[in-house]
Write a sequence for this structure.
């Protein structure tokens, strides 16, 4: 390891400079510590060092002044930028709502609630700063865009309103029935006197499966029924037995209950 001795460096440099000058003048002069030539050399070196320091400080001051000028320009532009953000955010809100309305109807409650929170944040008189408003706008755009590149399965009730909640109703009538379809953990909870109402979030009718934005399907919890959403008619169309099996397999994969594999999706083609 090399060790540095910074406190001795100026002395060494001074002695080298003095040696060169005195060598040119007279060998005897180097022996005199009060020689005016040595003092002159030291003075020249000090002046040179001061000039270097001044040049460095001037460069620093110029850089700082340029930064100050840039910040001042940005500050002066803030009012104009702030005025333009409001209308832009309102337009973004309108476009997001259009997208949700025209899209396949997956997780509508969650998406509309997120949109409502965003609209409240950008409302006139709100407490959110322009920066926070823009952050929320970009966040909701990112979430909505991400739906197109993912496969997701989530529990829900039957999409037909007249049949929604049928499983829980069957459990209220008879917890041992096939239509109720309690698993072992749910049965154990009931044996421990857990109210059936506490189990309601886990007793939804079936599962929805979203293939990006290409297709949205629903399958009953026992596999007895499967449907796909038709974006043209805005109706749910019944699917056959082979398709039901394929959808149930895809649901298990999307939930991480089975290994990934290639699956067929019932995609609508206009």
């Amino acid at each position: 390891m090399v060790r540095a001795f910074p406190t001795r460096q100026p002395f060494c440099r001074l002695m080298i400079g003095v040696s060169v000058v005195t060598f040119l003048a007279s060998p005897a002069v180097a022996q005199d510590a009060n020689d005016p030539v040595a003092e002159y050399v030291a003075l020249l070196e000090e002046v040179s060092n001061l000039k270097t320091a001044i040049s460095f400080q001037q460069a620093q001051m110029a850089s700082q002044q340029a930064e100050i000028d840039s910040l001042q320009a940005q500050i002066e532009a803030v009012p104009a930028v702030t005025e333009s953000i409001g209308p832009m955010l309102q337009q973004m809100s309108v476009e997001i709502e259009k997208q949700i309305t025209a899209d396949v109807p997956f997780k509508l409650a969650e998406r509309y609630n997120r949109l409502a929170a965003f609209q409240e944040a950008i409302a006139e008189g709100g407490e959110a700063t322009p920066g926070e408003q823009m952050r929320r706008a970009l966040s909701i755009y990112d979430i909505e865009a991400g739906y197109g590149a993912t496969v997701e399965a989530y529990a829900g009730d039957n999409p037909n309103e007249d049949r929604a909640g049928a499983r829980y109703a069957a459990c209220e009538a008879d917890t041992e029935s096939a239509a109720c379809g309690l698993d072992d953990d749910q049965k154990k909870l009931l044996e421990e006197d857990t109210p059936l109402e506490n189990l309601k979030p886990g007793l939804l009718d079936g599962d929805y499966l979203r293939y990006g934005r290409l297709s949205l399907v629903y399958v009953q919890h026992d596999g007895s029924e499967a449907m796909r959403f038709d974006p043209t008619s805005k109706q749910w169309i019944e699917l056959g037995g082979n398709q039901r099996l394929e959808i149930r397999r895809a649901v298990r994969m999307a939930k991480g209950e089975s290994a990934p594999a290639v699956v067929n999706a019932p995609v609508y083609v206009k």
In short: Strands lie at 151-156, 206-211, 215-220, 226-230, 235-238. Residues 36-102 form the longest helix (67 residues).
